[in-house]
Amino acid sequence: PDQENLLEVNNIEVIYNHVILVLKGVSLSVPKGGITALLGGNGAGKTTTLKAISNLLASERGEVTKGSILYHGKPISDANPAALVKTGVIQVMEGRHCFEHLTVEENLLTGAYTRSDGSAAIKRDLEMVYDYFPRLRERRKSQAGYTSGGEQQMVAMGRALMSRPETILLDEPSMGLAPQLVEQIFEIVKAVNEGEGVTFLLAEQNTNVALRYAHYGYILENGRVVMDGPAASLRENPDVKEFYLGMS
Ligand code: ATP
């Protein structure tokens, strides 16, 4: 990845319900073309950080009360999620959120709704998604609600790709998946990153797998960044080993 920071989060505070201070000054930089991991335990503030970036806090009575969020150097705090998708940023929410009554393919096509470049390009991208997720090609006519958890995670990611994003915010892709599937999902993240140049910011409790695939990591504890660095050096850090990688 080159040096340009696509996304900059500067010292943000987030408050829920006017009183609960959850992010206490979080700063992070996401370089173009990289995979950046946001790590930390349950309740550390990972999801809140992603939702602050994609402006999804209002529906949860949360707001950014301090700091700034810049994309390509411009503030994005006022962009609604649809406008943000046009800017090139899309969030894949925790828990997948497929349209259960639509087929896999119909779900993927919903991801192209903001595009105006015609059906030929959309068809091409559907093939691109199927090339990254061969399993979805096999299951394309299946009702999404009847597919497995791993397949639904793939649908959610594939649908995001259909918007031709520059940046994907990926929340907890490993959640509830067997280790082998987790590995498969991260292999696809890596392939999409390398093949399409898509930038990733991913929130993940599974530090081990995230630090094997990410280039850079931030560790959040209780609403603050307590450590950050290149993934390779975090993997070797004694504190990270002890507290996050389950070995001392
Ligand atoms: P998880 O992996 O459980 O999602 P996380 O690191 O993503 O953890 P957040 O979901 O961002 O953490 O939550 C951070 C803190 O904010 C937690 O203490 C949580 O209870 C609190 N919180 C989250 N959403 C709300 C809300 N809508 N109202 C009040 N507090 C909230």
Automatic annotation (TrEMBL):
Transmembrane segments: none
Residue stretches making up the ABC transporter domain: 7-247
Keywords, ordered alphabetically: Amino-acid transport, ATP-binding, Nucleotide-binding, Transport
Source organism of this protein record: Paracoccus seriniphilus
GO molecular function ontology, one term from the record: branched-chain amino acid transmembrane transporter activity
One Pfam family recorded for the sequence: ABC_tran
GO biological process, one term: L-amino acid transport
Designated name of the protein: Amino acid/amide ABC transporter ATP-binding protein 2, HAAT family
Gene3D superfamilies per UniProt: P-loop containing nucleotide triphosphate hydrolases
Family: Belongs to the ABC transporter superfamily.
